[in-house]
Amino acid sequence: MELSEEEKRQIEKVKSKMNCPFDFKCQKDEFTRYPKIKPVGTLLSCMEEDAKFCGYSLPFGNGFFCKCSLIKYIYRFGSFNEKNTNSMKT
Fold first, then answer.
1. What are the tens digits of pLDDT across the range 10-66?
2. How far apart, in whole angstroms, are the C-alpha atoms of residue 27 and residue 3?
């Protein structure tokens, strides 16, 4: 995925305020490995197997909601093409 300079600046700004337990693996290789996320209203449900180990996950029922600012940014505000957006939403 090609990122604009503004998107790169925003991503770095978001990351500077975080301490990711997975070393920002979602950003490796320009976001080619997306987390398994499913929108639930205004929230994002994390479908990753290791969600219970993430400090940005919120347990709810049998699943987890994603509280990660970086994931929220790339999901809601990133300039993804149709293929990339669909792969994130599964």
1. 889 999 999 988 888 777 766 666 678 888 888 999 998 889 998 899 999 999 999
2. 11
CA neighbor of 68 nearest in space, from 46, 85, 90 = 46
HSE-CB of 61 using CA atoms within 13 angstroms: 5
The pTM score is: 0.70
Q: Per-domain residue ranges for the chain?
A: 5-84
Cα–Cα distance between 40 and 48 in angstroms, integer?
15
Instruction: Give the residue ranges of DSSP H helices in 32-81.
Output: 69-76
For residue 15, count other CB atoms closer than 10 A to its CB: 15
- What distance lies between CA 53 and its chain's CA centroid? 15
Alpha-carbon Rg for the chain in angstroms: 13
